[in-house]
Amino acid sequence: MGNMLDVILSVEVIAGIIITASLAMSVRSILFFTREAATMSPRLQKLESDLTRLRDGMSDKKKSVKELTVVVDPLKATEARLRAYYDSLKNLELEHERLSAESSAREEEERQKRVQRKKMGL
Question: Where are the domains of the chain?
Answer without folding.
Answer: 2-120
